[in-house]
Design goal:
Largest sheet: 4 strands, mixed
Bound molecules: pyridoxal-5'-phosphate
CATH topology of the largest domain: Aspartate Aminotransferase, domain 2
Structural class: alpha/beta
CATH superfamily of the largest domain: Type I PLP-dependent aspartate aminotransferase-like (Major domain)
Number of helices: 12
Helix content: 25-40%
CATH architecture of the largest domain: 3-Layer(aba) Sandwich
Radius of gyration: 21 Å
Strand content: 5-15%
Distance between the termini: 34 Å
């Protein structure tokens, strides 16, 4: 069993993907070819945002978004410590300081009720992460941001396609950033990412920053980066986008099957009302994680931990805050474990994974009590 079966996904979409790749090889516009604008149009329409700017990775998306907002030395960005390192890394790369706010124990997303107390005169943005594929409490976060005239950047690297109160992730705040890293819900076959906004000025700035701050050929009106997504990767995402809604429905089915077997027996990351998850990860909350991971490994079931060490206690970031801050993030980092997930995971495999987990945790299988009584 694979943790995420990208080969099965490729086999299912092979003809379309190959055809798309061949078209790019034949037309030869490997950088900024027609598929780049085509993908940007398709993704903007999908999310409802007015602009989509494809970029070379999710990390670069965060970096370019903050550069467009003018974030730099002396500035603070409020974010979560329970994320992939890139979230805070992009802030530090610009010379700014990430200010970590603890997470909600149920969803593992930033606890919106703690944000306001972290705002200072230096705060320049709030950057929630839609962790495991589920948006944070964006209405509450946007309301705080509006009161303090701050932009909100959604790190939607794991949540492209998710819905929050009728809107799509990436279009829930001033800027949304996503990633097309192969294992993300909508992945390419290399590195890629995209930025979304409905602010025309920010969009223009981000388009220029993506190409070395160039406003016209060889006219550099600002300092930028080499941050383009290549045409081949855009072509691959275009091909995969055709099946994406089907894949999201399959992911939801897989999650529902896990839920049916595990809920009430094993701790689960909670789903907030009013939003959907795209299940970038299906994550359980357990004790004795090492022993349970080893037991599953012995049954040839791969698991992963997202994330074993919160960012605020990582060696390169620990000087930024107290080690005992964000206690919920510290606790969840010790207890979370992600199970195999993907649109091609069969009902039999889901059953086998859930049964192995229940066995390892000393829990009975659903239906086992009824059988014992009969
Ligand atoms: C994957 C990820 C990123 C970085 O995306 P890359 O495309 O790998 O650079 C940023 N934030 C989060 C939450 C992620 O999961």
């Amino acid at each position: 069993m694979e943790f995420i079966d990208l080969k099965a996904q490729y086999q299912a979409a092979r003809a379309t993907i190959n055809e798309r790749i061949q078209t790019v090889l034949d037309h030869g516009q490997y950088i900024m070819g027609p598929e780049v604008a085509e993908l940007e149009g398709a993704l903007a329409a999908y999310t409802g945002a007015r602009h989509c700017i494809t970029v070379s990775s999710g990390t670069e998306a965060l970096l370019i978004a903050m550069m467009a907002l003018g974030i730099g030395p002396g500035d603070e960005v409020i974010t979560t410590p329970f994320s992939f390192i890139a979230t805070a890394e992009a802030v530090v790369l610009l010379g700014a300081t990430p200010v970590f706010v603890d997470i909600d124990a149920a969803t593992c997303n930033i606890d919106a009720t703690l944000i306001e107390a972290a705002i200072t005169a230096r705060t320049r943005a709030i950057m929630p992460v839609s962790l495991f594929g589920q948006p944070a409490d964006m209405d509450a976060i946007n309301a705080i941001a509006t009161r303090h005239r701050l932009p909100v950047i959604e790190d939607a690297a794991q949540s492209f396609g998710a819905r929050y109160r009728g809107r799509r992730s990436c279009n829930l705040s001033r800027i949304g950033c996503t990633s097309f890293f192969p294992s993300k819900p909508l992945g390419c076959y290399g590195d890629g990412g995209a930025i979304f906004t409905s602010d025309d000025h920010l969009a223009q700035a981000m388009r220029e920053i993506r190409v070395h701050g160039q406003s016209r050929r060889y006219v550099h009106t600002r300092v930028g980066v080499g941050g383009r997504m290549d045409t081949l990767q855009c072509a691959i995402v275009l091909a995969k986008l055709e099946r994406f809604d089907w894949e999201l429905a399959q992911r939801a089915k897989v999650a529902a099957r896990y839920d049916a077997m595990l809920s009430g027996r094993i701790g689960l990351v909670g789903r907030a009302p009013g939003c959907t998850s795209v299940y970038a990860q299906y994550t359980v909350v357990i004790d004795e994680r090492e022993r349970i991971q080893a037991a599953l490994q012995a049954d040839a079931i791969p698991t992963a931990v997202h994330y074993p060490v919160p960012i605020h206690v990582q060696p390169a970031y620990a000087h930024l805050s107290r080690a005992d801050s964000c206690p919920v993030a510290l606790e969840m980092a010790a207890r979370v474990m992600s199970l195999p997930m993907g649109p091609h995971l069969s009902a039999v495999s889901v059953h086998d994974v859930a049964a192995a987990l229940l066995r390892a945790a000393g829990e009975s299988l659903p239906g086992a009590d009824a059988q014992a009584c009969s």
